[in-house]
Specification:
- By secondary structure, the chain is mostly helical.
- The chain has two domains: about 5-165, Clp, N-terminal domain (Double Clp-N motif, Orthogonal Bundle), CATH 1.10.1780.10; about 200-260.
- Helices cover about 65% and strands about 0% of the residues.
- The chain has helices spanning about 10-25, 30-40, 45-55, 60-70, 85-100, 105-115, 120-130, 135-145, 170-185, 190-200, 200-225, 230-260.
- α2 (about 30-40) runs antiparallel to α4, α3 (about 45-55) crosses α8 (about 135-145) and α5 (about 85-100) crosses α6 (about 105-115).
C-alpha cells in the first residue's frame, strides 16, 4: 500500500494514539473512530486545528462516538488490529496526499481519508457535526498556506524517496498487512520483519521461489553465452521463459490472495 516513511511524525503519533484509544475502550479492533480521537488528542497537529475550527472538540466527539457505538453491533476481531475500513482510510490518505502534490502524508490527509471514505463511525459522527470533505478540504487548504511543514523520516532533498511513483493496489495491500503486523506487535514503525511476515503465505512463498528460479536460470544462461556454449544457453533460455511464465502465474495468485475480503 504505500511507503510508510512518508508519514509525518504527527501522523504516526495519531495512529499510535488510535491504538491506545482502542485498548482503553477494550475494543478488539482499531476503527475510524479511534483514528478520529487520535487526531483530536494530538492537539498541535493540523487536522486537530481544522476540526476545532469546524466546531469539533475532543469531549463532544468522544460522547458522539459512544452514543453511535451503542446503537451499532460490536465488531469482533481476534487481536487489536486496524479494521479493513481503517486500512481503506489510510490508502485514501496516501491518494489525497498525491492529489495535493504533497511528498508526505500528514494528519490532514488522514482526516480527508476518513471523510472521503465516508462510511465509518468517524465519518458519521463528523457528518452529524457538520463536517464534510468539502469544508474540511477548504479549511486545510487555507491553513496550509501558513502551516509549517511537519517532519517525516529524514531523507536527503531530491533523492528518489521524495519522487516515489504511486504504488499499485497489490503493494498497498501488502504494506497494509505489514502495518497490521507492526500494530499487532505494538511497534511504532513497520520493519523488515513485519514486511517479511506479511509476505510469508502460500502464494507469496511460491512467487518468491519462482523469482529465484528465474534469477538462477538467467545467470546460467548468461554464463553459457559468455563461454560461447550457445546450445546450453538456448536450453537455459527456454527454461528461463518457462520459469518467467510460472512466476507471472504465481504473482497473479499472490495478488488475488492480497485482495481485501469483504463480508
Amino acid at each position: 500500500m504505500y511507503p510508510f516513511e512518508r508519514f509525518t511524525e504527527r501522523a504516526k503519533a495519531v495512529l499510535t494514539l488510535a491504538q491506545r484509544e482502542a485498548e482503553a475502550a477494550h475494543h478488539s479492533y482499531i476503527g475510524t473512530e479511534h483514528v478520529l480521537l487520535g487526531l483530536l488528542t494530538e492537539r498541535d497537529c493540523l487536522a486537530c486545528h481544522v476540526l476545532n475550527a469546524l466546531g469539533v472538540e475532543l469531549d463532544a466527539a468522544r460522547a458522539a462516538i459512544a452514543a453511535l457505538l451503542s446503537r451499532e453491533p460490536p465488531i469482533i476481531i481476534g487481536t487489536v488490529v486496524p479494521t479493513s475500513r481503517v486500512k481503506k482510510v489510510i490508502g485514501i490518505a496516501f491518494d489525497e496526499a498525491t492529489r495535493l502534490g504533497h511528498a508526505y502524508v500528514g494528519t490532514e490527509h488522514l482526516l480527508l481519508g476518513i471523510l472521503v471514505e465516508g462510511e465509518g463511525v468517524a465519518a458519521q459522527v463528523l457528518r452529524e457535526m457538520g463536517v464534510t470533505a468539502d469544508n474540511a478540504g477548504a479549511e486545510i487548504e487555507r491553513r496550509l498556506k501558513e502551516w509549517p511543514p511537519e517532519k517525516t523520516a529524514s531523507t536527503p532533498h531530491g533523492t528518489a524517496a521524495t519522487r516515489l511513483l504511486p504504488m499499485g493496489q497489490d503493494v498497498r495491500q501488502l504494506m497494509l498487512a505489514a502495518s497490521a503486523q507492526a500494530v499487532g506487535t505494538r511497534s511504532s514503525a513497520i520493519g523488515l520483519d513485519h514486511l517479511l511476515n506479511a509476505m510469508i503465505s502460500s502464494a507469496g512463498m511460491e512467487a518468491l521461489a519462482r523469482l529465484l528460479d528465474v534469477r538462477r536460470l538467467t545467470a546460467m544462461k548468461e554464463q553459457a553465452i559468455a563461454s560461447q556454449d550457445y546450445k546450453t544457453a538456448a536450453r537455459h533460455r527456454t527454461e528461463e521463459k518457462q520459469a518467467t511464465d510460472a512466476l507471472h502465474a504465481a504473482v497473479t495468485s499472490w495478488r488475488e490472495e492480497l485482495e481485501p475480503r469483504t463480508s
